[in-house]
Amino acid sequence: MNRVKKGALFLVTLSFLLGLTSCGNKINEETKEIKIGVTLYKGNDTFINDIRKEIEALVKNKEEAEVCKITIDFVDANGSVINQGNQIDRFISREYDVICVNLVDRTAAATIIDKAKDADIPLVFFNREPVEEDMNRWNKLYYVGAQAEQSARMQGNIVIKAFETDKSAVDKNGDGKLQYVILEGELGHQDAAIRTEYCVKSVMERGFELERLADESANWQSDQGNEKMTNWIKEFGNSIEVVFSNNDEMALGAVYALKTAQVPKEHWPVVVGVDGINEALEAVKDGTMEGTVLSDTQVQATNIVNIAYALAIGQSLEEVSPIRNGKYVLVPHKEITKENIDDFIKRPKIKEIK
Ligand code: BGC
Ligand code: CA
């Protein structure tokens, strides 16, 4: 037997002894099925649905590129903590390798964590971040999300740029202040709280004056955004100069309200969102929204899949993801305005991930 063959035999034996599978390292031909369960807080949330689609595409690519079979099952908790608890129980009793959790209630992860810990099944949380105390309950907990403060600062920057480019088009009453309203996401969501705080703070820090007209939660939803904005248009007339929205859905709701109220172009406020969903990109293109901030679902999904997969096959996580403090992946954002909109509308789909 030559040295190469001996080496190969040694590796096969070693991987067998260590219980490694063929998945990911292709050392032997034996295949193993990996089971990943994903529970979504609400399947009809546009942004979450985008993440889901990206995850599905990535898993398909990964499966084609690797030797092993990956079963990925999505379930929708439909906003119910009880549903989500039952879904986790089922994943555990069916011995899934990893469970990815988009929490219904981000402040109540302890029960889920304790069950997973008992069964020794790692959890990858995403988009709805458990509180730190809960993240410290076990060492097999991970979180993939976005850098909320950065997204808010970018919104602020888009508003400042618009103002500096054409002062009278933004400060319509010429009083030197920007009269604004905020459409907040769901109360208690980390992204909503942080985006609300920093969109305003970041503009003030750069020396601009702002005046708050109104600030309400529209729960991430466009119909509620529309409703709030319709009331504000009635209340404040043309004095709304800026609409900060914690996400695109609500910003689109505000745009719909402005259209319905037939607000003319010269009174149209600067509307900014976050996420970069398709409809918002169209709105940036046609000028009804000044801009949005991309919360990259493709990169977030890539990290979720890579971490889940690595955990399932026992691969080191440092190799696959830029993990902070052994637990967190916080994906950076990008500003989107009319200037660079075409780069995003024509964005290529995922081809392959390593
Ligand atoms: C997104 C929202 C989404 C929410 C769901 C946020 O990060 O910006 O669009 O509805 O997550 O948890
Ligand atoms: Ca003004």
Tally the helices.
13
In one word, what is the shape?
elongated
Gyration radius (Cα, Å) is: 23 Å
Outline the low-pLDDT stretches.
1-22, 25-29
H/E series, N to C? HEHEHEHEHEHHEHEHEHEHEHEEH
Main sheet characteristics? 6 strands, parallel
Mean pLDDT: 91
Helix content: 40-55%
- The CATH topology assignment of the largest domain is Rossmann fold
Distance N to C terminus: 33 Å
Total number of strands: 12
CATH superfamily of the largest domain: Response regulator
> In CATH, what is the class of the largest domain?
Alpha Beta
CATH architect. name of the largest domain: 3-Layer(aba) Sandwich
Give the strand order, joined by hyphens, for the main sheet. Answer: 2-1-3-4-5-11
What is the number of independent domains?
2
What proportion of the residues form beta strands (DSSP E)?
Answer: 15-25%
By secondary-structure content and strand pairing, the structural class works out as alpha/beta
Ligand set: beta-D-glucopyranose, calcium ion
